[in-house]
Amino acid sequence: MKEQNFSNHRRYIPSYHFFFLTVIIITMIASLINLYLAITKGEYALISLIIFLLSLSALFGFFFMRIFALKAQNRAIRAEENLRYFVLTGKLFPHELKMSQIVALRFAPDEEFTELVQTALKNNLSNIEIKKAIKKWKADHHRA
Fold this sequence. Notes:
Helices cover 70% and strands 0% of the residues. By secondary structure, it is an all-alpha fold. Helix 1 packs antiparallel against helix 2, helix 2 packs across helix 3 (99-105) and helix 3 runs parallel beside helix 5.
């Protein structure tokens, strides 16, 4: 696999992020136009409304699929990083860390991890600042 680093760690699935979303948006716009025309002409308004509601449902579904996958992934990341912190320090993860910080810390290797946790807490580093502070990137090829 390609070496992962800060500049290329974001993951896009073209068929999901670009094609599927584009099709949904085009369908939404077309169904809205169709609904408007049906209402102004007084014909097939119910069918046009149903088509519009289905396309709206598809749009919500698109975003909820992503949100639910990320929520599940974040729970797993929190547990994994809490275990890693416990193994390295004998202590539980500091509860002051935000989820975005924990997600960013997963890219830090063990040698940098505990120090970076303390720096993130002390300086309230953002997820991007944490990722930029990592010297030797630990890849994560199994994320959603």
